[in-house]
Design brief:
10% of the residues lie in helices and 49% in strands. By secondary structure, the protein is mostly beta strands. The longest helix has 18 residues, at 2-19.
């Protein structure tokens, strides 16, 4: 049951990491002439376009010593302010074989990215990423009765996103921790 919980957490974290792939690299000049993409207010604008592309890496559950591959295809629609993500996880995900690719959608503006979506394998997934590349989120109401919730935080640094996650198991409040790392592919 706990191994399945970690696999589910891995899926949630990977999804969050992929969706939250917003950061402060490669800022776009805003239409109002603000310096360095600051919109004229001194604060950096979110650069969604810098997340567009293929990301690949792995997840690792430190508590249970399990690992697997992870990839995300991120498609940014700058005009529409939307991001579509196809997340593919490998390894012993959810206690079984790897799931089919997971489709996610979120929105962005100058301040960052957000996603609130119910996903069959992740439950209610909520993710935010600010203009500095700080990632935060959670997955609740997971389909596994053995998992109460998954919480995650992370950052983007250059072409690497790193997310740390904690899975809280139902009933005994025991937890498991892990990381997800994705690199933008050339």
């Amino acid at each position: 049951m706990r191994t399945r919980g970690w696999m589910l957490l891995t899926v949630a974290v990977t999804a969050a990491l992929v969706l939250v792939g917003c950061g402060g690299d490669g800022l776009v000049q805003p239409p109002d002439g603000g310096a360095n993409g600051d919109g004229g207010d001194g604060a950096a604008d979110f650069d969604a376009a810098s997340y567009d592309g293929t990301w690949a890496g792995n997840w690792e559950n430190q508590t249970f010593s399990s690992t697997g591959s992870a990839s995300a295809e991120i498609d940014v629609d700058e005009a529409g302010g939307t991001v579509d993500i196809t997340l593919d996880l490998g390894g012993n995900v959810l206690g079984g074989s790897d799931p089919a690719p997971i489709n996610l959608s979120g929105t962005f503006d100058d301040t960052g990215f957000s996603l609130d979506q119910n996903v069959a394998v992740l439950g209610d997934l909520s993710i935010t990423i600010d203009a500095d590349g700080n990632i935060a989120g959670s997955a609740t109401n997971l389909p596994s009765a053995g998992i109460e919730r998954v919480d995650f935080t992370g950052t983007r640094s250059g072409d690497t996103m790193t997310v740390s996650y904690t899975v809280t198991f139902a009933g005994d409040s025991a937890t498991a921790t892990g990381t997800l790392t994705l690199d933008l592919q050339p």
